[in-house]
Amino acid sequence: MPDITAAMVKALREATGAGMMDCKRALIEADGDAERATQILREKGLASQARRAGRSANQGLIDAYIHFNNTVGVLIEVNCETDFVAKSPDFRKVARELALQVAGYEPRWVSREDVPDDVLVTEREVYEAKARQDGKPEQVIPRIVEGQVEAFLKQSCLMEQEYFREPGHTVQDYIAENISRLQENITVRRFARFNIRET
After folding, report:
1. Contacts by 21-24, CB closer than 8 A, 24 or more apart
2. Could you say which DSSP state residue 78 is in?
3. β partners of residue 18
4. Mind listing the pLDDT tens digit for each residue in 31-80?
5. Which has the closest alpha carbon to 63: 94, 84, 88?
6. Are residues 102 and 191 in contact, defined by beta-carbon separation less than 8 angstroms?
């Protein structure tokens, strides 16, 4: 089997818009040849995923998940393009997986675009004060702060969290793979997480 690096997969994904796992499989099939891998993705209809991602998604469903001990619950709205796909078992599975992700990993927002500016300002102030308190050199503090803000966003935004079933892949990667598979745009509109211990 050819040595397929993460950089090769990333480059193919950026070029085609296909999901990470689809890109990796295509590269393996093409013995690492990016041009041939692109052709394989096009033949399978996966390279058009990026175009589908821009299409309107105004159908979908609301799924609910209650943890076995009845202390954590999630409501999530996941959208797609057609009522036909919204009613399919595959799409319901996607919604359920996303509800499980929200239950277990406690994101606060869907994407970084949803994070209020005042929250980011406060986070930056806290990280900057902590870096100064730790005696970090003044010239490296901005880099430290940006790194910590990036880590905060990856932890707090559903799309950027690591997908719980596939370490090394994000929730966004999981959704992209299902856009390719179901041939429709899929978006998460909103979610709410309830915890009996939270006030």
Report:
1. 21/166, 21/169, 21/173, 21/177, 22/46, 22/177, 22/180
2. E
3. none
4. 888 888 888 877 766 555 555 555 667 799 999 999 988 999 999 999 99
5. 94
6. yes
Token digits of residue 123: 């986070």
Is 14 in contact with 173 (CB distance < 8 Å)?
no
Phi, psi angles (nearest 5°) of residue 194: -120, 135
Residue type, position 74, single letter? V
- Tell me the pTM: 0.71
Contacts of 106 (CB under 8 A, 6+ apart): 193
**Helices then strands (H, E): number in the chain?**
9, 3
What's the CA gap between 131 and 82, in Å, rounded?
Answer: 50
Tell me how far apart the alpha carbons of residues 180 and 22 are, in angstroms, rounded to a whole number: 9
The predicted-structure confidence for 2-34, as pLDDT tens digits, reads as follows 688 888 888 877 777 677 777 888 888 888 888
Integer Cα distance of 140 and 162 in angstroms = 28
The model's pLDDT over 112-121, given as tens digits with 9 standing for 90+, comes to 999 999 999 9
Enter the tokens of residue 94: 């996607």
Q: In this structure, which amino acid lies at residue 190?
A: R
Report how far apart, in Å, the C-alpha atoms of 63 and of each of 4, 18, 93, 115, 192 are. Answer: 37, 26, 10, 23, 11
Report the alpha-carbon distance of residue 164 to residue 31 in Å, rounded.
29
